[in-house]
Amino acid sequence: MQNTPRIYIDKEIILNDKIAIDKTISHYLRHVMRTNKCLVFNNGIEYNAILSDDDKYITAISQTEHIDPCNDIELYFAPIKKTDELVNMATQMGISVLQPVITERTVAHHINWERIKKIIIEASEQSNRNSIPKLRDPIKFSDVDLNTIIIADERAGHDMEISKTSLLYNKVFVGPEGGFSQHEFDLIDNSSAQHLSLGKTILRAEVAGVVAIAKVINK
Question: Measured between alpha carbons, how far is 153 from 180 in angstroms, rounded to an integer?
Fold first, then answer.
């Protein structure tokens, strides 16, 4: 239902069972949206639900016909200063996994991942998803299997020709603000990674992530 508040429930949703909720949710529904009706979702399924008269519970009363619009794309990304914007936009685009990767030029080492999780949930609620992407723990560049990944190759913006090939994988890797190092590019070039051109302009890292996801979605 259009304009009906959507709430992510971080537990199994069972029809007609009472779901205890935080006061912030009941306040949002009762005093901000001025309604006792909402949609709740988890694990790809959405339900019609109502808020109890005492504002302590939400009860799912029926399953909706809304199909989860998400995809199976995994975004590998170097944490950046605007990681919140990158994660927000990637979530809205329906990706399934967010995998932070520490590269040689990664400068944002102190990301508040708990805050990022809240941004993911809010973006999922807003974008009509029935699920939220999985946020994995950060890994090192050396831990990435480059043979099964698509590299968003910013070298196209420096006049390097990037061959056009059919994209085979569902994992796309976007580098940090300063791009991948030469050593990292050497490892990439000696692997079976596929190269994805983002065009002839140099994009900000958060924009590059969105463009790369869009190109993989439409592959």
Answer: 9
Question: Where does the chain have alpha helices with state H?
Answer: 23-27, 83-92, 113-126, 182-189, 205-217
- With vertex at residue 155, the alpha carbon angle to CA 152 and CA 161, rounded to the nearest 5 degrees, is 100
This prediction has a pTM of 0.91
**Are residues 179 and 138 in contact, defined by beta-carbon separation less than 8 angstroms?**
no
Query: 162: pLDDT confidence band, cut at 50, 70 and 90?
Result: low
Torsion angles phi and psi, residue 9, rounded to 5: -110, 120
Within 10 Å of residue 133's Cβ, how many Cβ atoms?
Answer: 23
State phi, psi for 42 to the nearest 5 degrees. -175, 150
Q: What sign does the CA torsion over 163, 164, 170, 172 have?
A: positive
Q: Which residues contact 200 (CB under 8 A, 6 or more apart)?
A: 156, 157, 159
Residue 7 pairs in a beta bridge with 40
Residue 150 in contact with residue 216, Cβ under 8 Å? yes
Amino acid (1-letter code) at residue 184: E
pLDDT digits (tens, 9 = 90+) for 131-143: 999 999 999 999 9
Give the pair of three-digit tokens for residue 32: 């901000």
Question: How far is residue 197's CA from residue 182's CA, in Å, rounded to a whole number?
Answer: 17
The CB-side HSE value for 112 (13 A sphere, CA atoms) comes to 6
